[in-house]
Design a protein that fits this description.
By secondary structure, this protein is α/β, with parallel strands linked by helices. The protein contains five helices and seven strands, in the order αβαβββααβαββ.
Length: 149
């Protein structure tokens, strides 16, 4: 009887470890025609915060215009994405965009209803970039960055 509580604790810890290891990722995706094959969190953040509107394919190649697809406010993945990408919560993100919109500097990325809509938009738009849950990925897009949830 004395070993049973210890065994239960070990099993609980093992289950917790498995659940943490099995956590999915947020995948930043581009159209396969895009010359960019990998991006840093900073590069993705700059696109999603309106600091830049084009990809830098590197190696002296010209920049590539970006069509940036977001998910709608209230989407659980949207909050996960911005927290994992740059530590920004949705309230702070919305305040940031309100300030930029008021100044007339730049408009926020186009918001789509869910991951399927983002995947479809990026698939159709050779300049497209978006983010989806790893479970939504198929071979019609290229993953350029993975963020742990």
């Amino acid at each position: 009887m004395g070993r049973l509580p210890g065994l239960r604790i070990c099993l609980c810890l093992l289950g917790l470890a498995w659940s943490l290891a099995a956590r999915a990722e947020v995948c930043i995706i581009v159209n396969p025609e895009n010359p960019v094959h990998a991006m840093t969190p900073r590069e993705v953040s700059d696109l999603y915060l309106g600091r830049t509107r084009s990809f830098d394919p590197g190696e002296g190649r010209p920049s590539w215009p970006a069509s940036i697809y977001d998910q709608v406010d209230g989407s659980p993945l949207r909050e996960t994405f911005f927290r994992a990408l740059n530590g920004m919560d949705i309230r702070r993100l919305n305040a940031y965009w309100a300030r930029l919109r008021f100044s007339g500097e730049v408009l926020p990325p186009k918001a789509l209803p869910d991951g399927k809509a983002v995947l479809d938009a990026v698939r159709r738009d050779r300049n497209g970039i978006g983010y989806v849950h790893s479970s939504e990925i198929d071979d019609s897009v290229r993953i350029v960055l993975r963020l742990k949830e």
